[in-house]
Design brief:
The complex is a heterodimer of chains A (109) and B (112). With 109 residues, chain A is mainly beta. In chain A, 0% of the residues lie in helices and 56% in strands. Chain A has strands spanning 5-7, 10-14, 19-24, 31-37, 44-49, 55-58, 61-65, 71-76, 85-93, 96-99, 103-108. In chain A, the strands form two sheets. In chain A, strands 2, 4, 5, 9, 10 and 11 form a six-stranded mixed sheet that branches. A five-stranded antiparallel sheet of chain A has the order 1-3-8-7-6, with no helix packed on it. Chain B is built from no helices and eleven strands. In chain B, the strands form two sheets. In chain B, strands 2, 4, 5, 6, 9, 10 and 11 form a seven-stranded mixed sheet that branches. Chain B is globular, with a radius of gyration of 13 Å. Classes of the chains: A mainly beta (109), B mainly beta (112).
Chain lengths: 109, 112
């Protein structure tokens, strides 16, 4: 099945640093979603974006829906140890959801 | 609290046996989904159902079967025909076509 290009694949950062990850596609979407998955758990929805150009924040997280509708980014500011996990993007069009390959984030104290 | 419940959390089976994974939701969602996740990989769609008594194959349906007799329930059977069944299985649901997907906490199946 089709998957989105998500980068970077993994990140190792120090506590307090800012993080940025993004997803790109050759297809357009009308919704972009960002999820976080902790080990052994299901993904949890972080941010949902419904409009091209939309910039949405959820605490220290900020995500944007690209103007071309083919990309999205997620920023995490002032990272903390509990930010550790795998972050997935997902693009949705007419109910069909395509997932990114994930970004594994490690935060060191 | 509303949510999606998958059970059991861990499941062990011998090769050659069929096994059924449970997924129940009390969110009144019409659509339900099953995904498979292998270590270090993304999510792959197995089956989905947009309404009771109807379901469609996803990208990797071979060796799996589902039923949707009730709106709240979407059990997944991993049959002996599935060549590599050991994986983490995730159930999800959503309320309308373009609303976000919500996930259960997964079932880790180990077949030896």
């Amino acid at each position: 099945g089709q998957q989105l290009n998500q980068s970077p694949q993994s990140m190792f950062i120090q506590e307090g640093e800012d993080v940025s990850m993004n997803c790109t596609s050759s297809s357009i979407f009308n919704t972009w979603l960002w999820y976080k998955q902790d080990p052994g758990e299901g993904p949890v929805l972080l941010i949902a974006l419904y409009k091209a150009g939309e910039l949405t924040s959820n605490g220290r997280l900020t995500a944007q829906f690209g103007i071309t509708r083919k990309d999205s980014f997620l920023n995490i500011s002032a990272s903390i140890p509990s930010d550790v996990g795998i972050y997935f993007c997902a693009g949705q069009l007419s109910g069909k959801l395509i997932f990114g390959t994930g970004t594994r984030l490690q935060v060191f104290p | 609290d509303g949510g999606i419940t998958q059970s059991p959390k861990y499941l062990f089976r011998k090769e050659g046996q069929n096994v059924t994974l449970s997924c129940e939701q009390n969110l009144n969602h019409d659509a339900m989904y099953w995904y498979r996740q292998d270590p270090g990989q993304g999510l792959r769609l197995i089956y989905y159902s947009q309404i009771v008594n109807d379901f469609q194959k996803g990208d990797i349906a071979e060796g799996y079967s589902v039923s949707r007799e009730k709106k709240e329930s979407f059990p997944l059977t991993v049959t002996s025909a599935q060549k590599n069944p050991t994986a983490f299985y995730l159930c999800a649901s959503k309320g309308s076509l373009n609303s976000p997907l919500h996930f259960g906490n997964g079932t880790r199946l180990t077949v030896t």
